[in-house]
């Protein structure tokens, strides 16, 4: 694919109809090891992304690594929002090299994949590179992923950018899905997510609602 054609596919905005979500290794042992991000901020962002996916009915794949023997079960910020989704456990460092998870992602039948993982340098970068090679359009959640240090996290980010992946944030995805404030079927849900996880802006929304009553 030419560089121009590669750019063209990213001009199309994300939507609930063309996107899928993959979340990789959000487990206690992995959270213990991150230093590139505040753990509290990370958990807030993960929860915000999960609620966004649920609100807009985004097909989602959840996966863990060695949950029973080393890393622990997937965190409640995810399972409380998506209690009925299967969680695929693997031994591979590269999620795409696990046959079961790879098949689950393929069955989503979406080319635009939004992906977040712990850690950035391994469990995010490896499948991103593999999926780009397979022809997927990858949007990695920069603020919902983290690495062992800022330097290591940033090195992973640079490698994915060089390969053609696009960085996004969970709030950007939320707004990209909503697109228009007159979309009433999801408006209240979006406002609830913003108030719960949108930081200062969420407080502003709450204030505006209170002030206007």
Order of helices and strands: HEHHEHHEHEHEHEHHH
Count of β-strands? 6
What portion of residues is helical?
A: 40-55%
How many helices does DSSP assign? 11
Strand content: 5-15%
Rg from C-alpha positions?
Answer: 17 Å
Mean pLDDT: 95
Q: Outline the biggest β-sheet.
A: 6 strands, parallel
Spatial arrangement of strands, main beta sheet = 3-2-1-4-5-6
Structural class label: alpha/beta
Distance between the termini: 54 Å
Overall geometry comes to globular
Question: Which runs of at least 5 residues are low in confidence (pLDDT < 50)?
Answer: none
Task: Please describe what this structure looks like.
With 213 residues, this protein is of the alpha/beta class. It has helices at residues 3-11, 28-32, 39-55, 67-71, 76-79, 99-107, 120-133, 150-163, 170-178, 184-197, 199-212, and strands at residues 19-24, 60-65, 87-90, 112-117, 137-141, 166-168. The chain contains 11 helices and 6 strands. The chain has a 6-stranded parallel sheet with strand order 3-2-1-4-5-6. Helix 3 (39-55) packs antiparallel against helix 10 (184-197) and helix 7 runs parallel beside helix 8. It is globular, with a radius of gyration of 17 Å.
SSE topology sketch:
Elements: H1 3-11, E1 19-24, H2 28-32, H3 39-55, E2 60-65, H4 67-71, H5 76-79, E3 87-90, H6 99-107, E4 112-117, H7 120-133, E5 137-141, H8 150-163, E6 166-168, H9 170-178, H10 184-197, H11 199-212
Parallel strand pairs: 1-2, 1-4, 2-3, 4-5, 5-6
